[in-house]
Every structure is written in C-alpha cells, then in structure tokens.
Amino acid sequence: MLRENQERPPAYLEERVLYARNKFLSTSKPAVTGGKPITEELAIELRMTSFGTAACPPRGEWIHSPLVLRAPDQPLAYGLAAPRNSTRSLLSGLQAHLIKWLLFDSRPMTKDNKSTEPPESYLRPSDERQEEALWRACSEVIWRCGGGFNSQNPPETKVTVALPTGKTYVQHSAQYYQDGVTEKLHLFEFNKLEDLQIFIKRYLYVFLLDEGAGALLMLYAAVLSRGCENIIKDLDGKLNYLVSTQVEGSINVTMLVLTGRATPYLHNGVMYVGDEDHYAMPQFGVLFRSLVGLLVWYGSDDNGSGQLTKQHPGSRLKTPALPIWVTCCSGHYGVLFNTNRELLRNYHAERRFDIYYYTCGGCHVVLNVDTRSHEDVAGSLRSDDISATPLEKLIHTKWQDAKITWTGTVPHIGESPK
Q1: Mean of per-residue pLDDT scores for the chain
Q2: Is the pLDDT of residue 37 over 80?
Q3: Does residue 17 register a pLDDT over 50?
Q4: Neighbours of 307 (CB within 10 A)
Q5: Which PANTHER family does this one have (predicted)?
Q6: Where are the domains of the chain?
C-alpha cells in the first residue's frame, strides 16, 4: 500500500493510507500489443522536450508515480492521491477534469437545469464511477493536446499515446541514459475521440500499477499529441523544456493540461510586446475560454510557479465555463471548485457560496465566500489584509475583498521550501 508522508492536513482531515487499485492486480490484464516501437531519435527528443536532457534520467518521481485513486464511496473518493513532488502540476490539472466529469458531465439534469440528486453525492463515487471518471479525464486531456475541443472548426485531430512493453528498443549510450520506461514505449495514434477512450479504458491498469509511471505516461501522451516542436514554440524561449525544477512542477505543464498548449502566458488572446529598439513580437496566451480555470498567487518575489516572470491569469482562466480552478498558491498546487454549474453565470449565486479546496496530498477544506458589501462588518478580510492566509489571498485574486470563512481547522499552505 502507498502511504502519504508529506503535506499533512489537520488530523481530522488526514487520510494516511492511499487506496491502491489492487483489483487490477487480481484480474486479467490485456497485454500491450500493436503500435510502433519508439525510435532512438524520438526517445531523445521526447526526453529533451520534457526534461531538458536525454543524457541523464528524469527525476525519480516521474518514473515511480502511478495514478492513485482514493477509497471509493468515501468523502474524498473523487480525489487523486500523490506525495508532494514535481508531478503535482500535472496531476492537479487531471484532478480538475476528474471533478468536472463527476460533478457536471455525468450528472443527469432536469429540464430546468437542476440535478436529480444532491451534488455532493457525486463526490463519493463507486469504484466503477472512479474508473470511468479517470479514463474519461485522461482522454479529454490528451484529445485537447492534439487540438480537439479548441475551436469551432478544428483541423483533423490526431493524438498519440505511448505505453511501455517488456522489450527495450533504445540502448544505453552517451546520448541516451535509460530510465526503464521511455526506451520501452510503443506508440499508438488515434484520430477519433471514441477510439482513444476505448483504448485508455482498456489499458487504464497500466497507469494505475503500483510503482508504475502513470504520471509520466500522461505527460508523454500530452507532449506527443501536442508535438515536441509545438511544445518548444509554446514555451517561446522562456524555458527550453517543459518540466521545471520547481518542487511541485511547472505551471506550463498545467497550462498544457488545461488548454492543450504549454504557453507561459496567462493573459487573454495575443499580446504584442516590444520597445523602441525591437519589433513587437506576439505572445500567445489563452485563445479560448477554458472549461477549467486557473488562479495564481505568488506570495513573494521568489516565483514558485516555475515561470521566470510573474504572469497573472486573464478572464478566460479566472472565469472559466465551469466553477473549477486549478490553483497555484506560492508554488503549491490544488483545486478549488463549487458544485453549482450556474455559479459564474448567476449574479445572485455568486454573492454567497461555499467553495471546496483539495490537494492530491489529502488536504480538504470547505470555505464560505461572501462577496456582498461588508463595510459594516468588523474584522472582514480585505485582499491586502496581512492576516489573510495564502489561500485566502489567492481566492481574493478572483473575488476581491470577499469575506472568507473557514469550515474546520485552517490547513497550512505556506511558502514553497527554499
């Protein structure tokens, strides 16, 4: 069994044992067959694009971080679980898509757009619904990286998924250091979302195997589907590779998961930046309103997000189509969400509401956000209040001057370690 040993929440929220999908170990698993073996050229390019070098192995957590779901039918059954490491920026984006499917995509609605069951009941999925949520979330992320969902008339979408086999296709050399995964990959291409979903569902166990590389396989699928050359173009010279050295990973990885592009720019649309000595050059930000949003609070001059300069999300990230946000709070990644689909479309709903906060480390709290005027309420927190916690300051980047009330003990979400 996997055990959490980092980012401890309060005792009443702590879940010490992570739920490994052991049923996959006791049932028949289809062997990975078909596809095309990886070439040495592609293996080097994939490692260079993702980690900056092929001559050294990736950080160990990428090789040994499976996708882990918590125990079904429990309060946190909707959550992925993982220790604090550089896979968090990817897993938090995937977590947001899991919540999206459970809360909104899978819920039957009445004619007046109301749920037939209390929304909280969908946050305690059975193991079957957990698995469906996961393979659908993985498929959606990969499909978006291949260009799907990103415009009204998208070009032909083609995505690539890479799964390891028992055979090694790239030998150890001065140019390539074997990592136990990349050199064993078979590549599978899809141009229909339904075919991709069937494939991910069939081989979901590969992403979930204990001590497996589920997080790395998701990263590789995103990179291959976007294209290594396009990833480098997305980074626009701000970084030379995708995964930064930050403790919980790069916000560029999160942007790839949310928007299908690894852009370091969080503003809306395209901005032209130049000066009197240089031609104005385009910086491509968020081209379409995101289904899932992003909120960022840096907290200090030491940028914890993996970006060289501080970028603040535009409205296409701060006001997404659905009330779900990946959060980067002083370099710590989590997810904020509300169960009301109409929250961001209804002024009255947004006046006072509860919002959930979850991290893959097991921290889970509920906060009440009150955006009504509080001039007559003593002690209400303003966005510049030095007594506000980092998470409250992050929430204030979306709802400035809102009064925030915690349910239960306030967890520690501090600065990133130096």
Answers
A1: 86
A2: yes
A3: no
A4: 21
A5: UBIQUITIN CARBOXYL-TERMINAL HYDROLASE MINDY-4-RELATED (PTHR12473)
A6: 36-274+283-375+386-407
